Structures are given as structure tokens and as C-alpha cells.
Description:
9-stranded mixed β-sheet, globular, Rossmann fold
Amino acid sequence: MWNRREKDKIRKKIFTNIQELGIIKKYLCLPGEDVLCIKTGKSLGVFTTDTHILAYENNTSIFQKIKNNNILTDFNKLSLHHQDITESQHKNIDFAFLDFCGTLGVKEAMWLQELLNNGISRNGSVAITMLWGPQTPPQLYKLAQKFFKNNNTYEQHILSSFKNSIGMPIDKDINKFIPCFILCCVLQNHTFDTAYVYRYKDLGKRTMQVIQLIGIKKSQKNNNFPSLEKILQQGGEKQKMKKANVDWSEAGRKSWETRRLNMKKKKRSDAAKRAWVTIRKNNGG
């Protein structure tokens, strides 16, 4: 269950940060049924009618709701795709806002690495929402944790990478460090100008972390972290890891959408009850 109020605040901050880049020509996103990221970008002037919007949604019912949203008619260049975003390839993306429903598993991490290598424009920006702590998909989390524990320099490298982060500092608890460690491994051979870090608790009391990187550039120098491939290959686990994480990721997304739909039904039900009580009072019942 997501915390709409807190997430709205963070979303607005993210797009306010993007204003320094000027008008976004090409935007990649997972908009959700209410397309809130697109609405926010448009209201803050980050998008114009000529911004190319590339939106992805794998869930059929949510895809139809996105398709029927009137705000999308404001854009001359709209590419709405009914598919898993990790099956897509891109070029010259100025800004990607990726809310993986709380997950950053093997499939998402490897796709993100490819996006950074070949899909983001120079000085482009990426914002990623992910869980931190032990809730991270256990296969990738456990392998990354082994690397992290076996090298006491990684903690300092992470703190150094995010030393000028704005918003909130990276938490030093090891369980909360691992998702940031995975992200740093994905970012291998890349640098960035500014990092913004935001955290909030969803209604299920899980801690969500949003990391926004601005001014991403390829670098000839390794960023002191192991490659994602090296982590996955330890113990000959790469193929097994991929399959297990794909299964977890799909199940996690279905569970997430079920919780969101149930929450909406409850809100509608509560609103109907309040309306009925009001009518009865007005009629002297």
C-alpha cells in the first residue's frame, strides 16, 4: 500500500530538480493508472506538447486506464506500450522515472545497466524508486551482501559516491546499504553530477527509497565496484538467479496490483457509506 501524500511530495521535488535541465525532449516512464508523473512534469513546464513520452505498462486493466486518460492527448509524440519495460530498448532518453513497484531484481538491474550504457543521453537523468533492507529480492540481495561483507572498502566507496547527495544521507545500516551497493554496481563506468536521495514509509510500514541522478556520463574509469555480471556469476548461479528473480518479480507485481485495487475498492466503499449516512440524515432518517 503506497503513501500517496508522501510520494506526491517527492515526485514534485524530482521534477523540480529536472527543471535545471530545461525542456525534456524524450521521457521514459512507468506512469501507473493515474499517470501522475506525466501530469506533474506537464504542470511544472518540464514537458511540452512536443516532448516524446514513452510509457510502459504490463497490466492489461491498468494499461486501458492509461490509454483512456485525456491528458495524453496533449502530447504530439506519445508511445504507449502494453509490455514489460525490461523487454524494451531505447536511445537518447533525457529523463527516465522508473518506479519498479518496490523491486530492483536481476531482470530490472540488468535492463537498467543496458539503459545507462546505450539509452541515456549525455547529461541525462534517472530517478529510481526501490525498497531497501531485507525486502530486496533475496537472490540478488544475498549475493550482493557477500561481496559487500568481503570488502570493507565498499561502504566508503558508496559514501564517497553520494557524499554530495541532497535530501537525505545514505543510511549506514548494512541491510539498507545493499540496494545502494547494487545500484552502484549497475552504474559501473558512469559518473553523475548530483544525487538526490529521498525516503518515505508506505502504508505497510516498508521503507521506500527514491534516488535521482542528474548529469549521468560515461567514464573511462571504473567506479570501484564489481560488475553486476561478476556478482551473478559467483558460485555458478547466474542462470538460476535470472529465472528465480523473474518468477519473484512477476509474482511481486501481481500482489502489488491486487493490494492497490483492494485499497481503491475500500476507499470507494467507505465513501459510499458516508454518502448514505448523509442522505439519511438529510431525509430525517
